[in-house]
Design brief:
Largest sheet: 8 strands, mixed
Radius of gyration: 29 Å
Distance between the termini: 69 Å
Strand content: 5-15%
Structural class: alpha/beta
Oligomer: single chain
Helix content: 55-70%
Number of helices: 34
Strand order of the largest sheet: 7-6-5-8-9-11-10-12
């Protein structure tokens, strides 16, 4: 044991130097284990013992290493990217946490020295995750990334040089590039994030290809310490206190460092997701921000996100000035993604100025510096979502009209009265908006929808309310569909589109509900979706499946070929192409596609069942039975696999087994006359007819 223990200590000390982070954490740990074994072997050879004992010990160690390497399962990437350890309360009340984590549609995965970087796609959008935490997305939560660009860019009179502290998805970068700036720099130390951002190019206007851009491979703090340049706008999107790269970004020292790289009239923008920080940490952050900048505003950024904007000079803002800036189509079109169509729609998200923030803080004197850190801001909180909503409600209590920020003077005109009434209604709408979140926390979706509907009626200019209401309708429709109330679900899903006609996700949600009822209507919905977002490939894959279902093999093949030209490694797309080959009788070509899909996603029951079908058509019952058995091992209630598996065992004369499997399938589809007939026939052959 002594040589083995010494070898392990030596190996794990040297592993980071010999292996590094490049191969990935899983490979590095495996390598460290083999180094430990090798060191143990060497030390065993030098240890005083008989030759036979040494040979036996070394042989046993090598054999154990080989066996463990062979049987060791690969890391579950879905679990690695789930963020279960980041917010354990999400899974604490779930009986089967493994099922709750589920199988993610992972488009990109890289174990970078700076963190495990992944791009995960779902029906709610595409998400960038670092160590399981979502740091950006192309989804309903895209608003903070877009507003993080427009708020500081509109607060500054003539921004020319911009610095982004962190790249994220690149959406903020793309929105900055809508303005006529001369240069943009991004400080990003995680290479995996830079590579992953390429997958969000359709939503960032191919931001990484802009000639004005320079990406600096440094952490934000490191770059600000080393640079002599001054910037008109600096934007920082906090990725949460658990991120080691940005952990100290909440400190007073960080705020002062950001101020040091600003031009005197520059604007610093700092985005905070309240779901990532405790109330005290938020107050500490606000106090640090106000300590660095004499002129401060706080804006609502969507969902549970707020945006702080600070400067050394007073902000000169007016509705007319903002409206003039929004006349530029490349700026206004970007904001229309959030259904913000005018200056009032943007200004409605203003919440607080310095005086209002001072009232919110009360006498709070929290301090967080590099030398005296507040540990509550340096570790991931474990508060449930209700805490973030409560913090948002607290902030809303102190909110003021944007007219206060604009230094409004009442001239007694009707126009002025109408403007004040408009912003007063929007301020009132903010209370109902927060109230909708409170209703959701208590589990009352219908009350949440009612409050959002009223908020939207009070402030129709604020597109964020419309977006949130549409998103809520989508979730309600899914719950109704799961409860078997399909007609009601479809009606609610249509309301989601009415509220947000620019939401491609709302169209996709309705399409998923309509596809079982009316394939042609679904195809029409998906075509409209493609006009809104030609890069959302799950819609194209669904359209190809429906075209195939309606007998249009040619268009289905063309559609899926276009998908594969954009994502050559997409397992689902290879699966659909295989189905096209099956329809044409090309079984060998179909198997090649399906084997690729299974290799990429070993738990894909649909692909395994399709492989079984190719062998069933070829008359090879043994191969077909094998693949259907594997599919059912993954998904026991897979209807197609159950039906065909029963058919195979019946062909082999195993009627009792076939009847039992068909009866299980019949429970899934009680009106299926074909299965009823199969059971009757099998029973007759058993003599029980």
């Amino acid at each position: 044991l002594l040589p083995a223990g010494a070898g392990a200590v030596l190996a794990y000390a040297l592993a980071p130097l010999l292996i590094g982070g490049a191969p990935g954490l899983e490979t590095a740990l495996s390598g460290a284990a083999w180094l430990a074994l090798a060191a143990g072997v060497l030390l065993t050879g030098a240890y005083r013992a008989s030759r036979g004992i040494k040979i036996a010990a070394i042989g046993a160690g090598l054999a154990a290493g080989l066996v463990l390497t062979a049987v060791r399962p690969s890391w579950d990437r879905s679990a690695m990217t789930s963020g279960a350890y980041e917010k354990p309360y999400t899974y604490a009340a779930v009986e089967d946490a493994a099922s709750a984590v589920g199988r993610s549609d992972i488009q990109f995965y890289e174990e970078d020295p700076g963190g495990v970087v992944a791009v995960v796609r779902s029906r709610d959008g595409t998400f960038l995750k670092v160590d399981g935490k979502t740091v950006g997305s192309a989804s309903e939560r895209i608003a903070p990334d877009i507003l993080a660009a427009h708020i500081p860019m509109l607060l500054h009179k003539h921004p020319e040089n911009v610095l982004l502290l962190g790249l994220g998805t690149g959406v903020t970068l793309g929105s900055v590039q809508r303005y006529e700036v001369k240069s943009i720099k991004v400080a990003e130390s995680v290479e995996g994030v830079i590579r992953a951002a390429a997958l969000f190019s359709p939503y960032s206007y191919n931001a990484l290809e802009d000639k004005r851009l320079e990406v600096v491979r440094m952490s934000p703090r490191e770059y600000m310490r080393l640079t002599d340049e001054k910037y008109d706008v600096v934007i920082h999107r906090s990725t949460g206190p658990s991120d080691p790269v940005h952990a100290s970004a909440v400190s007073t020292d960080f705020m002062l460092l950001a101020r040091s790289v600003l031009a005197y009239d520059g604007v610093f923008c700092y985005v905070v997701d309240l779901a990532d920080v405790s109330r005290r940490c938020l107050m500490t952050t606000v106090a640090a921000f106000m300590g660095a900048f004499p002129y401060v505003t706080l804006w609502y950024g969507g969902a549970t996100t707020v945006i702080l904007a600070g400067s050394m000079e007073a902000f000169e803002v007016s509705e007319a000035a903002v409206a003039e800036r929004l006349e530029r189509p490349w700026v206004s079109n970007d904001l229309k993604r959030l259904q913000i169509g005018d200056a009032a729609g943007l200004l409605a998200n203003f919440k607080m100025d310095r005086e209002a923030l001072r009232s919110y803080l009360g006498g709070f004197q929290g301090l967080d510096t590099d030398s005296r850190p507040y540990l509550g801001c340096r570790a991931a909180p474990v508060e449930p979502p209700g805490e973030a909503v409560a913090t948002l409600a607290d902030l809303n209590e102190y909110s003021i009209s944007p007219l206060e920020m604009m230094g409004d003077v009442d001239d007694g005109s009707i126009e002025h009265k109408l403007m004040r009434d408009k912003y007063d209604r929007c301020r009132e709408a903010g209370g109902y908006y927060v109230g909708s979140y409170e209703a959701l926390v208590s589990g009352d979706q219908h009350e949440a929808a009612r409050r959002l509907e009223y908020a939207a009626s009070l402030c129709p200019a604020n597109g964020l309310i419309q977006e949130r209401l549409s998103y809520l309708y989508m979730h309600v429709s899914r719950d109704l569909a799961a409860a078997g109330r399909l007609e009601e679900a479809i009606n609610v899903a249509r309301r989601a589109i009415e509220v947000s006609p620019v939401s491609y996700l709302a169209f996709y949600n309705l399409a998923t509900l309509e596809k079982e009822r009316d394939p042609l209507v679904t195809i029409s919905l998906l075509e409209r979706l493609s006009e809104l977002n030609p890069y959302f490939l799950p819609a194209d894959i669904m359209r190809a499946e429906l075209l195939l279902e309606t007998g249009n093999i040619t268009d289905a093949s063309e559609t899926i070929s276009e998908v594969l030209s954009k994502e050559p490694m997409n397992p689902r797309a290879h699966h659909v192409r295989a189905l096209c080959f099956i329809q044409r009788g090309l079984m060998e070509a179909a198997r090649v596609e399906l084997e690729f899909a299974v290799a990429a996603d070993p738990d894909n029951a649909d692909a395994l069942a399709a492989l079984g079908y190719t062998w069933l058509l070829a008359g090879d019952l043994d191969e077909a039975e094998k693949y259907y058995g594997e599919a059912l091992g993954i998904e026991p209630d897979h209807f197609g696999a159950l039906n065909n598996y029963a058919t195979i065992v019946a062909e082999k004369g195993e009627y009792h087994k076939a009847i039992a499997v068909w009866q299980k399938a019949l429970k899934l589809d009680p009106r299926n006359e074909g299965i009823k007939a199969n059971i009757q026939e099998a029973m007759q052959k058993l003599g029980g007819g």
